[in-house]
Amino acid sequence: MNLSNKAKEINPSITLEITAKAKELKELGVDVVSFGAGEPDFNTPENIIEAAIKAMKDGKTKYTPTSGILDLRKAICKKLNKDNDLNYEPNQIVVSTGAKQSLANAFTAILNKGDEVIIATPYWVSYPELIKLSDGVPVILKTIKENDYKYTINELRSSITRNTKAIVINSPNNPTGSIYTKEELFEIAEFAKENNLIIISDEIYEKLIYDNEKHISIASISEDAYNRTIVINGLSKAYAMTGWRIGYSACNKEIAKLMSSVQSHVTSNINSISQYAAIEALSGPKESINIMIKEFEKRRNYMINRLKQINDLSIIEPKGAFYIMICIDKYYNKSINNEKIKSSLDFSKSILEEEKVAVIPGVAFGLDNYIRLSYATSMEIIEEGLNRLERYLKKLK
Ligand code: PMP
Ligand code: GLU
């Protein structure tokens, strides 16, 4: 069949694929330990669930405005003002089916054929594919370990062409957990201004921050940055609401209108029940959220300590989000069952087969000499998984 070349060029999401594979094996009775997707293991807080049940009972089960019900957009404006020092009006907000759809809407709204978007390695797996789906060209910028894999102005300068339309910034970063400082954001904002670029700022991990680090939205750096930034955020991570599919964007009215127009034809609105739950999440008590964040920090510290003791493993210590990157290239060309490990994909396939541990290969993020472990899973599972990892590494000869 003569199907879409564009669709054929898209790689399916490795993070979702591996997570689904681990779940499938578990259902078949295999004792799998999954460090796969970044998905909190906690249930959604009770007050949020109650708000959803109430919405259903009250008959809030109809279509809503495409960009989201007004009360939710007002609650998002309040949140952005309180947490991020950003002032938006409800008509600058578009609520979408996860931050993933917000990103898809953003790229569709701003890109013309051949427009380039700069993303830095390691990048979240979906950025390049979403850009390609909007006929854009992802330009991959290499970053270095010495700078915590954050891009610098010099690196940005080397990637700019007359086709550059936008840059993506993801702070705290998936998969490294790196956080950009105010000074770094200031320089990036200046660079965007000089080159008239749109900034797409993915802030979905803003609440998951450790060691008293601080999240700053690049949109709050200056009036110019505010006008050229599309802020992307959502409730999946901080509120343990991955399955509810709630994301949102905040940007200037012109782009917001285009994003809403795109969405009106693709998914209409996000499901009405999630919208009422989201109002409660944003406006209700926050104790359960703080408990989750403290627990993530405990797990992170445990993992860092244990991994450092294993065979001098080199890791990226995360400042935020819930992932740890482990450098595996010193195991390249070692073998297990006569299979040589030559890439992160070989490594992750082999450890799944041999020890039933699911990890994400770094190649998904453009960093092939790493694997990513998510610590959004219980301490017992983390302990068992690290025991298995240690055993596996000893078997590599
Ligand atoms: N951005 C980043 C950096 C992510 O890791 C994810 C993963 N969930 C998303 C966006 C999308 O999240 P969601 O669609 O669940 O809101
Ligand atoms: N963002 C999460 C991750 O990186 C969930 C999976 C996905 O949406 O790709 O694991």
Topology:
Blueprint: H1 5-8, H2 14-27, E1 33-34, H3 46-57, H4 70-84, E2 93-96, H5 98-110, E3 116-120, H6 126-133, E4 137-141, H7 153-159, E5 164-170, H8 182-194, E6 198-202, H9 223-228, E7 229-234, E8 247-250, H10 253-266, H11 272-283, H12 287-309, E9 314-316, E10 323-327, E11 335-336, E12 339-340, H13 344-355, E13 357-358, E14 360-361, E15 370-374, H14 379-395
Parallel strand pairs: 1-13, 3-4, 3-5, 5-6, 6-7
Antiparallel strand pairs: 2-8, 7-8, 9-10, 10-15, 11-12, 14-15
Bound molecules: 4'-deoxy-4'-aminopyridoxal-5'-phosphate (PMP) and glutamic acid.
What is the gist of this entry?
The chain is of the alpha/beta class. It has helices at 5-8, 14-27, 46-57, 70-84, 98-110, 126-133, 153-159, 182-194, 223-228, 253-266, 272-283, 287-309, 344-355, 379-395; strands spanning 33-34, 93-96, 116-120, 137-141, 164-170, 198-202, 229-234, 247-250, 314-316, 323-327, 335-336, 339-340, 357-358, 360-361, 370-374.
Overview of this protein structure:
The chain has 397 residues and is an alpha/beta fold. The chain folds into 2 domains: 147 residues, Aspartate Aminotransferase, domain 1 (Alpha-Beta Complex), CATH 3.90.1150.10; 225 residues, Type I PLP-dependent aspartate aminotransferase-like (Major domain) (Aspartate Aminotransferase, domain 2, 3-Layer(aba) Sandwich), CATH 3.40.640.10. The protein is 43% helix and 15% strand. It is built from 14 helices and 15 strands. A 7-stranded mixed beta sheet has the order 2-8-7-6-5-3-4, sandwiched between helices. α6 links the parallel β3 and β4. The protein is globular, with a radius of gyration of 21 Å. The protein starts with a helix and ends with a helix.
